[in-house]
Write a structure and sequence with these properties.
- The chain is mostly helical and 131 residues long.
- It folds into two domains: 1-95; 99-131.
- The chain has helices spanning 10-13, 17-72, 75-86, 103-112, 115-128.
- The chain is built from five helices and no strands.
C-alpha cells in the first residue's frame, strides 16, 4: 500500500487538473490538425476533378481539330474552307447574298410615331425630290 500512497510518481501528474487540462489542449490541437488535413484533401479532390474535366474537354477539342486538319489536307477541304471564309464561287457559279429588309423597320418606326410626324414626313418626302 505504500507504493500507492507515494507522492510524486509520474503517473499521479496525469490525474491532476493541470494534467487533464494539458491532455485536453493536446486533443484540441490534434483535432484541428486532422480537420485541416481533411479540408486540404477535399480541396485536392475537387481540383483533381476539375483537372480531369478540363483534360476531357481538351481531348475532345484535339480530336475535333485533328478532323478539321485532316479535311484541310484534301482538295475539297481547302476549297470548302476558302468558300466559307471569303464568300467566293467557282467560275460559272453565282453567289447569293441575303440582305435584311430594312423597309419593315422604317415602317415600324413610322407606326410608332404620332400622326403629326407622319404628316411632316409626307411633306418631307414629297419635296425631297429623291425617287
Amino acid at each position: 500500500m505504500a507504493t500507492y500512497e507515494k507522492k510524486g510518481t509520474p503517473r499521479s501528474f496525469w490525474y491532476t487538473p493541470l494534467g487533464v487540462l494539458g491532455v485536453f489542449v493536446l486533443m484540441i490541437i490534434l483535432a484541428q490538425a486532422a480537420y485541416g488535413m481533411y479540408r486540404k484533401d477535399r480541396e485536392a479532390v475537387y481540383a483533381k476533378n476539375l483537372s480531369e474535366e478540363k483534360y476531357q474537354e481538351l481531348t475532345i477539342k484535339k480530336q475535333e481539330l485533328s478532323k478539321e486538319l485532316a479535311k484541310l489536307d484534301t482538295e475539297e477541304g481547302i476549297d470548302q474552307a476558302v468558300r466559307d471564309r471569303f464568300d467566293v464561287a467557282r467560275e460559272g457559279e453565282g453567289v447569293v447574298v441575303i440582305v435584311d429588309d430594312s423597309s419593315e423597320e422604317k415602317l415600324d418606326k413610322e407606326n410608332m410615331l404620332g400622326s403629326t410626324s407622319k404628316f411632316i414626313g409626307f411633306f418631307k418626302h414629297l419635296f425631297d425630290g429623291k425617287e
